[in-house]
Amino acid sequence: MAEQSPAIRVRDLTRDYHRPRRSLLRASPPVHALRGVSFDVAPGERFGIVGESGCGKSTLLRLVSGLDRATSGSIEIEGREITHLSTRRLGFLRERLQLIFQDPMSSLDPRMRVADIIAEPMVGLRHPISPGRVEELLQAVGLSPEAATRFPHQFSGGQRQRISIARALSVKPQILVADEPVSALDVSVRAQVLNLIADLVDELALTLVFVSHDLSVVRHVCDRVAVMNEGQIVEMGPVDEVYENPQHPYTRELIAAVPTLDKALAGSGAADLAAPTGADQP
Amino acid sequence: MTTHAAPPLAQDVLTVTGLGVSVGDRSLVDNLDLTIRPGERVGLIGESGSGKSLTALALMGLLPEGLAATGSVRVADVHHDIVGADENQLSRVRGNDIAMVFQEPMTALNPTMRVGAQVAEAMLIHGTRPTRRAAMSAAVDLLEQVGLPDPPGTARSYPHQLSGGQRQRVVVALALANDPALLICDEPTTALDVTVQALVLDLIVRGVIDRGAAMLFITHDLAVVATVCERVLVMYGGRIVEAGPVQQVFTRPRHRYTQGLLAASDLSVVDDRGRLATVPGTVPAAGQFPAGCVFRNRCGHATDVCASTPAWTGQDASDGFACHHPAPASEVGHG
Predict the structure, then answer these.
(1) Buried-most residue among A29, A156, B141, B294 (CB within 10 A)?
(2) Chosen from A261, A265, A272, A277 to mutate, greatest number of chain B CBs within 10 A
(3) CB distance B194–A257 less than 8 Å?
(4) Cβ–Cβ of A274/B199 closer than 8 Å?
(5) How confident is the model over B169-200, as pLDDT tens digits?
């Protein structure tokens, strides 16, 4: 394990966005979406990233999956630097790393049949498509073979997320990146999809990068977690350690603000959730 | 049209009897009974498609065209039924006796109007402040009460200049402007970050307690309901399947759906294979729920009896369940 290069290695990554000019005399100050982020994800590891909207977690995902360009810093996927590669030379990345998005409605083309949606990455990467492959993928995510000829709108949110997962797995990637995959799902369906992701990651020995605003979901799914705030990783460590004994004030605030059934049934009210946050409210 | 429902007792803020919502001959909400006393905070939980938002809209007389409400909705100090009332009558009730906080703070506010003027407008329309000047100064006070920084400055800003959390505070200020007897919140914090959610929940609860108002809080998040409410109603397939005090329903659920929902939302408990408890299947589309018990096609305990609609077991509509095969009363824990 030790000499194996990490699945993902990120060093001093920054990304600045430029805002439109508002004055004739000087340019608007840039937005520093990422300010020096570094981390490693070992092969087979389940790595979680938590943070609130605007913390830079989506920017980080876009960079790691080659959908955007870093301002500075480096990203290595399985030992290969991707920050300076042109889109045409990122083919290997698409073979190795695939994504699942948050909104299962807008991430599936409504005019394509499920079979075509699932086969599309294989077509794009010129993989040979055997007739049984789509059926095999549908079965792996718990959908019936009849689903292949139907359209996305004929499925519920949880089923659509299963289709997304099947599409991501079609080219047999080593790394699966999931951006809030269960945030849009109902509670009774959320557990099914989390179980499915966990099963597939185990079965196919995948490396998982799991992004969520929900610390309790990350705690269940991941081995290690990075907490992001204002474009930086403020705390990183094994999930149980971070959850039980948070070191950074922001992590503590985040954990205290999450309502849980156990806390509520023990008599904690809305005022208790807000208490640590109240001091520096926006 | 005369209604046969008795006028509400003095102590009840909201009395709903036999409320139904349907489109054509498809029933979306079925025979809902609900009473809320002053100062009571009641949660209505359910997954998407369970009919909880439609219930809220029906209580406000805001159902979209094509949907029809039946039954009776009586509000304290309003001398007519909300169901079947005309737009004139309803506009005097909305924002005055009943106010609502919606899920999406961007669409709930008028993008072309400064937020101070929007809060003031609510008071001017209902005549609770005599002049525009008095209403504006009351609006600034309200914006201060909901914890917005620089209230006079915020009053002059447009909604797009505020963050999501700030906008939701404005919506709360707007809803509380006329000291309503009943505040209906439909997923008010679902679109917000957790730290902002904590602040807004605290604000809503304090605002309601300070005014002695009653609250109906609609959400799919069990933990939020347990934090904010005293009593809870569990809705599935357009029906109330279980109701009772939060402590009782969340620690000793009787209906199999409530039990499944609690088990599936608990991410800290896994079986020996490391898997979470799940509710099999998915929520059917509106109007596609099975006849009889609405949960029977996803229930592990369902038998032939469940093809008939289970009767309500319990002392009244606020405490009981509707299940042919309830979990034993002694069964402790999340299922």
Answers:
(1) B294
(2) A261
(3) yes
(4) yes
(5) 999 999 999 999 999 999 998 878 888 899 99
List, for residues A168-200, the tens digit of each pLDDT value. Answer: 999 999 999 999 998 888 888 889 999 999 999
Share of chain A above pLDDT 70, in %: 96
Contacts of B202 in chain A (CB under 8 A): 270-271, 273-274, 278
Contact check, Cβ <8 Å, B198/A282? no
**Is A194's Cβ below 8 Å from some Cβ in B?**
yes
On the CB side of B170, CA atoms within 13 Å amount to 34
Give residue for tokens 């079986």: B271
Cβ count near B180 (within 10 Å): 24
Give CATH superfamily name and number for A8-19+29-247: P-loop containing nucleotide triphosphate hydrolases (3.40.50.300)
CA distance B194 to chain A (A): 6
Pick the CATH number of B14-229 from 3.60.40.10, 3.30.870.10, 3.40.50.300, 3.20.20.140: 3.40.50.300
Work out the angle between the directed axes of helices B132-145 and B164-176 (0-180°, nearest 10): 130
Portion 233-272 of A in contact with B at CB < 8 A:
253-254, 256-261, 263-265, 268-271
pLDDT at B294 over 90: yes
Domain with CATH 3.40.50.300 in chain A: 8-19+29-247
Interface contact flag, A269 B228, Cβ < 8 Å: yes
pLDDT of residue A276: 61
Q: Which member of B163, B251, B278 has the closest CB to residue A192?
A: B278
pLDDT of A54: 84
Task: Locate CATH 3.40.50.300 in chain B.
Answer: 14-229
